[in-house]
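Entry for the shared binder. Reason: the reviewer on the internal report wants the predicted structure included alongside the sequence.
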Amino acid sequence: MNRQTAVRNLLEERADTTLFGPPPGHGRAIWALVATITVTLAVLQFWQLGVSVAALAAAALLLVAAGAALLPAAEPDGYRLPRHWAWGAVVAVTLVQLTTIWDAADGRGEGYAPWYIRGSTIICAAVILRRRAGAGWAGALVGYLILALHGAMTGVPVGEWTTLILRQAGALIAIQVFAVLLDRSRRAVAVLREEERARLAAIRLRDAATRQRQVEAKRIRGLVTPTLLRITAGEASAELRREAMLLEGALRDSLRGRRIAAGPVSAAARGARTRGVDVVLLDDLGEGAGLTRFAVPDAVLDWVATRLSTAEPPRATVRISATTDERMTVTFYSENRGEGPELLIVDPEISS
């Protein structure tokens, strides 16, 4: 596999692939891992402490929050979590902390509450990584506020809940920094891909132009070789001079009227020159339009050929150009008629 093929394969990847993490909408494996851990901890807690409605509700809410953060498909602009799913996840983790923060029977905080707080921080981190930093930080800050108020009201030593909050906040800050760097990397990769697409498009256009020039060179070589051989052999007849004049016109057509000098037009132009008409074919579509930007329909070529077949001396001019709204315009003007030029406008859906 050469480099150009490898780059083309890179550019043809699915648009929703990411630099790190699972592809959008495919977070089931991570969610299954979170669910397994949560259910395992809930079972262990049930085995050690007995049935706790608050613990079971917290576990269920944590599963819901993890699913809301990991499972929904991304928005069109990449790995971004849909807004309502992001806020649903942070509301769920806030309810988790409200459920586990207080043991009504003992009048104190639940001993397992810090584990759910850590789990809630992980969910908020997943929301931040999926480019919903506002929702993620809002849920985290509300949760930390709940923890601080509970610690102050129940007389828990300040150092305990402060240390827990600082650790969780530090982890989220690290995640936020990573998310910013990840987004910058994603943007840089997108820019590089766009540049590579443009470069490959330029290469394909240049290759197409090269092939077109090779085809034209081969055609012109086949066109002029017989006449040149007759000239180099020393022939100087009137018929040869006439043939050379017609050949000169055909060469001018291939240079100045490349798109229009095709199909029946070439034979019609030769016939008109045989009758003494000075035929001028002008292609003013420009190189900027590219070799395949406009294609002259067969009906247009037939229209031009019909006009040339009835043209009389001294001159007939055919010109094709593009208007500002990208419509092809074909103009035919014959001096012997004493009338204005005929104008043909081609619909862009036909000509491009």
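Summary line for the report: The two ends are 34 Å apart (CA to CA).
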